[in-house]
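Step 1: inspect the first sequence and its tokens.
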Amino acid sequence: MLHEDKNKLSSEAFDLKRAIDSLKEELEAVDWYNQRAEVCSNENLKKILIHNRDEEKEHAAMLIEWLRQNDKGFEKELGEYLNLDTEDIVSAEEH
């Protein structure tokens, strides 16, 4: 859903929107497959659902990397918060 006049948005803004929308869809798919696998009683089907879930995680990671490469704000924040050496994520903000 666009919140602004599409004729006033740059192609870069549209690409960013495409990436964000796609990331939301991939994360939703991860959740759906995870829920299905959690309750599935057939082990073979469960393996397929887990495989599909993990493929969606790969897609989400690719989109996050695209966002990092193409948006300076995401680059800064991802650089700060990914691969922390502590479990206390909020503490990274204090440094």
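Step 2: inspect the second sequence and its tokens, then contrast the two.
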Amino acid sequence: MVNIDFYGGVNEIGGNKILINHNTTSLFLDFGMSFSQSNKYFSEFLQPRKANGIQDFLELGLLPQIKGIYREDYLRHCGLNSQEKPAVEGLLLSHAHMDHSAYIHHLREDIPLYMTEESYFILKVLEDTSAVSFIDMLKLKKNFHFTPKKNGEGYKRLGGKDAMVERDVHVVKPYENFQIGDFTIKSAPVDHSLPGASAYILETADDTIAYTGDLRFHGRRPEITRKFVREAKKSNPNIMISEGTRIDSQSNTTEEDIENKAKTLISDFKGLVIVNYPIRDFDRLVTFYKVAKDTGRTLVLNLKQAYMLNLFENKDYPDKDYPKIDDIAVYKPRKGWGLVGNDSYACFDGEWICSSEIDHSYLKSDYKTWERDFLNLDNTINYRDLQEEPEKYIFRCDFFELKELIDIKPENGIYIRSVTEPFDDEMEIDYKRVKNWLDHFNLPMHQMHASGHASGPEILDMIREVSPDVLYPIHTEHKEMFKELEEDGINVVYPKLKC
């Protein structure tokens, strides 16, 4: 029989860390951050110390006390022993949202990671473009190591490529069996609010487990989620671990609803349309790309989303209708010295030269290496373009890009907020800040959002169709709403958090 320990995702939304053991084989299902627990202690400017290895996380109960899973450099730095072999044989990643993946950073590099190709790309974007700490997802950068200097005199800190160690990453394909010890496993693609989400079906000699990850039935590809339900039912699982984020919700807003609502709003509007949607939500990108196309506008993406879109463009995903880089515009912000447009000056030999007359080669140092490929495309634009021809564009502007409005100075615009409603104190504070920016520039706000999670009736119908013997509801604040499944002969077991 399998043994299942829940180290996260219990009585909360996210933070999934589920350890499954059968005989001599142990696997993790996800290894994510609990935002609710982390936000008790940390904020944007109060962060855990990398100088203390994993100790800050362990002290505050953010990481579980499990021997044999954490990276050697963090352990040995704190005077802790590192086991020779990992305590688990692998980790199955359902998708690349941080509440399922963030704490992979702390794991040792010889724990195999299993994920879809799309999840791999998203984690690569996070590694390549993020300026935050604790982002060693696909590569582990060794810390606290000294290496001999080339001249043989003393030591220097290990850094750069010499400090990088590739993690053991395995890209899984839909419904192709793979083996990890006692487990035969299939990845089952599901629809969610970012590319590459996967459920998993795991079989041993004694048990079959269906793990949903996060899923929905009202996105752009509901058929792939329905296929998972059929395949899970066919596998006759005795155990199901299901998300229940929106178990208390009765209805859905679809991507098509947003598309139609946005088109109606802006079809006759002549000013700048500004929209914020989650950067990794490619279905929402497609929605506003279609809105732009149907209203005679061009969707404008920031450098980070353009970088991600470019990675996906180099792969053939016939079931997805992502735009190409040439189909959108790329926004080049003022960074560093701000030598974009013609409003800034720089001094050469005592003479102040307008930025419009400065050779582009001098601008590159303001941008990171990964950004530079997008700076001089034919479809790269800046604040001047949005200022002079606002009726031509839909400008994606996230929370941290609101300062771009100071350069753009929109005289007539609207703001579409296509993200979830605030549900905690920090989000409420950020929401008020957004409102202050919009009020300053006289931008009316329109809310339109579709969730990445199934509604309550859909979740219950899914579980009834799969018909497991035992159900563990996770990723939910309303586990009691699963209890009605016991009338269908399903034993609903509330998971307990293991410390």
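Step 3: confirm your contrast with the notes below.
The chain has two domains: 3-249+453-492, 255-447. The chain has a mean pLDDT of 95.
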